[in-house]
Amino acid sequence: MNTLAIEIEALSLSIKGKAILSDVTFRVELGCYLSIIGANGAGKTTLLRCLNRTQEHGTGRISILGKSLDTYSQRELAKILSYVPQPDGRHFPYTVYEFVLMGRYPYLSPFSSVGPEDHEAAREALKTTGADPFAERLIHTLSGGERQKVFIAAALAQGGQILLLDEPTTFLDYKHQVEVAGLLRRLNHDEGITVVSVTHDVNSAVLHGGAVVGLKEGRMVFEGSPAELLESDGLEEIYETEFHYIQDSPTGAPLVVPRGFHP
């Protein structure tokens, strides 16, 4: 049985003559939680978009579950891999339930109607994410944290094994950051879903465990565990600034603080 969810080899991409990704190579094990970190413009979002094929991936090779990405139809790929983009404030004129049910699109044809299995998948996704209490509300009436749960629920309704997320806690208050982070941990640990999350929050990457990939100007400059990241000069290289490491008393986990923010 193949144990790799994603395999990327020598991935390079240029847009209008500018190199966006250069010789990126790494693997993601099934059931892994991978955090992709890097400064603005490092190529993190583009990398995710290459994986879900909303962006041509240039040169190199991408495999999903041991099969070349190029050999999947978009419908086949959507049954395996789902994507939660960055929050962008767009207006969706749907109820939460209607929106989550749309996540079933890979299983429907233009001539088929939504069936009991689709409704069950939507209800289960809402329950798993804790979004079921507002299933009948319009999406635009939700808070940022509630909307993010709904977007994750729609991704879960697709039924895939791999979940890609682009800055899943951006713009959320602390309460909703904690709720979304806890949800992603449960999906990974309890449901066995492979999570690949782009984040600016280094502490989130450290506390989630799993593995970390660091990008800088489109190149991979780090791959390893959170502990290895903190023990190396990886953070300083990625963000071009110095950091302090403060031990969190209750958990013993190290917290990362840029030197300029430390008194």
Which H/E pattern describes the elements? EEEHEEHEHHHEHEHEEHHEE
CATH class of the domain at 1-32 and 41-76 and 194-263: Alpha Beta
Q: What structural class do you assign from the helix and strand content?
A: alpha/beta
Question: Count of DSSP E strands?
Answer: 12
Largest sheet: 6 strands, mixed
Q: Please name the CATH topology of the domain at 1-32 and 41-76 and 194-263.
A: Rossmann fold
Please mark out the parts with pLDDT under 50 across 5 or more consecutive residues, or reply none: none
Beta fraction: 25-35%
Shape: globular
At the fourth level of CATH, the homologous superfamily of the domain at 1-32 and 41-76 and 194-263 is P-loop containing nucleotide triphosphate hydrolases
